[in-house]
Amino acid sequence: MISNSYECTNDLIIAVLEDYFSEPRFLRKNDLFAINAKNQFYSHSNPSLAVIYFKVNFVKIKENVNSTVKNGCYILREETTLIQESNIHSYLPQRYFYLDAKEKLLEPYPPNFTKLLTHLEHCILPFIKHDIQLPIKPIFLIKGSLGSNKYKLIQTVAERIGLNFLYADLAEVQALTSAQTEAKLRIVLHNAEQSIPCVLCLSNIELFGKNSEGQKDERIISTFATEVNALYNKHLKYPIIIIATTNETDISAELNRMFIETIQIEHLNQDERTDLISWLLAKRNLNYQSNLLKVAGMCSDYRFADLNALILHAVKFHYKYRNTDFNSLTLTQEDFDKAYEYMQSIYTDCKGVPRVPKVHWEDIGGLGDLKHEIMRRIQLPLLNALGFGQSGLLLYGPPGTGKTLLAKAVATEYQLHFLSVKGPEVLNMYVGQSEKNIRQVFERAKSAAPCIIFFDELDSLAPNRGRSGDSGGVMDRVVSQLLAEMDGLDGSNSIFIIGATNRPDLIDPALLRPGRFDKLLYVGIHSDRDAQLKVLEALTRKFKLRENGEELAQLIDHMPAHTTGADLYSVCSNAWLNAARKVLSKDDPNNSMEQSVSNKIGLNEPITVELADFLEAVHELVPSVSEEEAERYRRMQTELSSS
Asked: Is 507 helix (H, G, I), strand (E, B) or coil?
C-alpha cells in the first residue's frame, strides 16, 4: 500500500483487497491500482477515507504456466497468493478530467480555478524535482473570503500533481496551554511526514499563535518555526508542501515572513459567476430554462459556496411548488428568484451585509427634480465603461424630508446592493479599530458591486479636522481614512457613495471637493400645495378612501405651511388608526382598540379612511421643523449654492 493520510487498519486493508479481487484482475510489475473505499460497507468507521492506492512490487509465475506477457498475469482469488509488504512512498496517478452521465467532457474543478491552479502548480513543481535542491522551504499562503473554496483548490492541486492531501484545522490544534498546542502540532507534522509526498493544508492560520485570551503567544510561533525547520532538514526523498489558508486580510508579521508566496483569491466578476453556475449545473446534470447572466447579476457578492447553495435551494423550491418528476427536472428563472430571495432573507440578518431594498419611486411623492438629478448621476456611470462621470452625492436638509428613502429608491430601481452605514456605529474605543471598520465597509462594497454605500449622519463620522478636541485625534484619523478609501476606488463605475446629513456646515471641507461629495442636493420641506399633495398620494396609494382621493385635496388647506415627509407620514398613519378605531368600536361599542388587540379581535371589513380621520390626525400633529429652523435651512442652502 502507498502511504496515505488515512487511518487504515489491517482488517480494513484485507477487506478492501478481498472485495477488489473478487473478480479476476490483470496486473503487471510496477502497476498502480486504486480502490475506492467510499462505497464499501466497512468504510463507515472513517468517513474521510476515499481512495487507497497499491503498487505491485513483484510478480512470480509458476514455471509450468505459459505466459505470453512478461511480468504480468491474471490475479484469481482462489489460485493466487497475495503477499502484502510494508507500506511505501510514491507519487500518485495524476487526475485531470472525467466524463459525466451525458458523456460530455467536464473539468473536475470550477472554471475560475484555472489561473489559480496554474499559479499554484508553478510554485510547487520546482520542489518535487529530485535533481533540484532549493535552499528555501515550500510554505505558501492562500488568502480568500469565507466560502471561496480554498480547500477544494488545494485538494485539486494535490490530485493534479499526484500528491497525498492532508488537512488540519488550526482552530482544533489550538489548546488551553502552549504545551498541549505544541504536542498537537507535532502530531500533525508527524502525520505529514508519514504521508510523503503530500500537501499539508493548514486552515485558519490567523488563529495560530494566539492563546485562549486572544493574545499573541510567541512560544507557539517559535515552536512551529523550529519544527518546520527540523522537518525540512531531514532531506526526505519526497517533498512536503505546506499551504496555509486564511479568511483575514492581515496576519501577524511573525507568521507572514514564513511564507515564500501569497496567493489571493479575488472576488468573482459577473462572467466568472456565470461560468461557475453553468459548471455547477452541469456537474449535477441539471437542466435550466433561464438566463444565467441575469442570475449571476443578482448574486454580485456571492462566492463559490453561496452559488452552490443557491442551486440547491432552487431545486428545493422547484419540487416544493411544482411537484415534478426528477427525470424532468428543469430549473426556471422563477426557481432562482425564489432561492435568491430566501438566501437574501437569511444573509440580511447578519450585520453589515449589503442588500437590495424594496422602495420604489411611487413610494416617494414630490422631489421630482431630485429624482432626475440622482438618476442622471447614477445611470451615466453604469452605462460608461471608462469609469468617468462618477461622483458622490450629499443629501442635506431638515430631518424627516426623505433623504434615506431617496437613496433606497435609487438602489431598488437600478437593482443595486445597498450598504447603509450609520456614523456612530463605525466608531470604536480601541485604537485603530475605527479606521479598520471604514476599510471593511469599502471592502464589502467592492465585493458586492454594483453597490451604493449610504453614509447616514455623515456629520458625526466626518467632522472638521483639528476641531474635534479628542486627545488621541481619533476623528481626524477616521476622516483621513475615509478620504483615502474614497480616493482608492480608482474611478470604479459600479460603486456609488451617497451621504445624508442635517448639518453640512460641520462636515470636513475636504469631503466636499471634486471626486468625493462634489454634488450637494437639498432635500427641503414640502411648503407648496402640489408637493404636499403628491406626497399624500404616494403615502395613501394602498388606502381605501371614501371619496377616491378628493379628501386629500381638501386636507391640504388644513395642513401647516411647513411639513416634512415624516409629518405627512404621521398624519396618514394616524388617520388610518382613527378609522380602525371606529370600525372596532362599531363592532363592539364596549371595547376599546387596546382591548380588541389584546383579545385578538379581527377586522371583518376593510378600513375606509375619511376626511374627518385626516383632520383629527392633523389636529394632533406637532411639526418636526419649526418656521425658524426652516428659514435657517433655506439660508444654508443659499450659502452652499453660492459657494
From this structure: strand
Task: State how far the Cα of 616 lies from the Cα of 571, in Å rounded to an integer.
Answer: 9
Q: Which residues pair with 500 in a beta bridge?
A: 395, 456
Burial class (CB in 10 A: 0-12, 13-18, 19+), 213: exposed
Q: Are 416 and 324 in contact (CB under 8 A)?
A: no
Q: How far apart are CA 439 and CA 544, in angstroms?
A: 48
Task: Return the bridge partners of 396, or none.
Answer: 501, 522
- CA-based torsion, 480, 485, 491, 495: positive or negative: negative
Asked whether 241 and 166 are in contact (CB, 8 A), the reply is no
pLDDT score of 352: 52
**Which grid cell sits at 95?**
487526475
- Give, as one character, the DSSP assignment of residue 516: S
Largest CA distance in the chain: 117
C-alpha closest to that of 1 among 234, 195, 235: 195
- Positive or negative, the CA dihedral 61, 66, 71, 75 is negative
Share of the chain above pLDDT 70, in %: 80
Evaluated on CA atoms 584, 589, 593, 599, the torsion sign reads: negative
Nearest to 597 by CA among 577, 617, 574: 577
Could you give the 3-state DSSP secondary structure of residue 195?
A: coil
What's the confidence (pLDDT) of residue 99? 40
DSSP SS3 for 8: coil
Query: What is the rounded distance in angstroms from the CA atom of residue 148 to the CA atom of residue 203?
Result: 13
Order of strands across the sheet that contains 198-203: 164-169, 198-203, 240-246, 139-143, 261-264
pTM of the model: 0.66
Written as nine digits, the cell of 282 is 452541469
The residues pairing with 140 across neighbouring beta strands, listed in sequence order, are 243, 261
pLDDT tens across 124-146, in order?
A: 888 886 555 667 888 899 888 88
> Within the chain, how many helices (H) and strands (E) appear?
23, 20
Kindly tell me the burial class for residue 528, based on how many C-beta atoms sit within 10 Å of its own C-beta (0-12, 13-18, 19 or more): exposed
φ and ψ at residue 87, rounded to 5 degrees: -65, 150
Q: How far is 330 from 336, CA to CA, in rounded Å?
A: 11
DSSP tag of 526: B
